[in-house]
Design brief:
The complex is a heterodimer. Chain A contains no helices and 11 strands. By secondary structure, chain A is mostly beta strands. In chain A, strands 2, 4, 5, 9, 10 and 11 form a 6-stranded mixed β-sheet that branches. A 5-stranded antiparallel β-sheet of chain A has the order 1-3-8-7-6, with no helix packed on it. In chain A, strand 7 and strand 8 form a beta hairpin. Chain A is globular. Helices cover 0% and strands 52% of the residues of chain B. By secondary structure, chain B is an all-beta fold. Chain B contains no helices and 11 strands. Chain B starts with a strand and ends with a strand. In chain B, strands 2, 4, 5, 6, 9, 10 and 11 form a 7-stranded mixed β-sheet that branches. A 4-stranded antiparallel β-sheet of chain B has the order 1-3-8-7, with no helix packed on it. Classes of the chains: A mainly beta, B mainly beta. Chains A and B meet through strand 4 and strand 5 of A and strand 5, strand 9 and strand 10 of B.
Chain lengths: 116, 112
Amino acid sequence: AQSVTQLGSHVSVSEGALVLLRCNYSSSVPPYLFWYVQYPNQGLQLLLKYTSAATLVKGINDFEAEFKKSETSFHLTKPSAHMSDAAEYFCAVSLISSGSARQLTFGSGTQLTVLP
Amino acid sequence: DAGITQSPRYKITETGRQVTLMCHQTWSHSYMFWYRQDLGHGLRLIYYSAAADITDKGEVPDGYVVSRSKTENFPLTLESATRSQTSVYFCASNMGQGQPQHFGDGTRLSIL
């Protein structure tokens, strides 16, 4: 079974500081990995995805994530936080093998607060 | 406009009533999904569909019914609503394996 753990349900950073949101997954086979962002009263928007082409993945709004197989991690980073980055962030995993690859398993989310 | 739309956006109903949440997508995506979002649980899959007339249970299917007679529509029905089904419901769709899911804006359902 696949699962996702997001360390820290709340993260606060100052504007201009580095953003680091942690995600670890458990899967018996290499997965597809995704980061989504959710703004208040909206659905989830895709930030970036890992599909085995490259370990460092760049997404929208200067976010990026690095797939580390040895650590089973897919942490999300951004060099400099903006006030507009305040939102909830979800890591999700989907198995590459057929059968259940269509399903996403989500972490419980990390609420990012950006302080002025 | 292309996209995925959910209706209604907000719904208040009483326990024991039947309620149907609608989901419509214009991309002709094969797969569609229903999730519920609750504090501390992230998103949990209720049901999904691989194509018209093909549906399957997710993690938390009890108390819900789905149908998919047309590719573009995937309604979710609570046959006899309970307070524990108060939640925000999201519909999503994608083309299949490895493809990101695209989400609607959600339906906030309150059951009194």
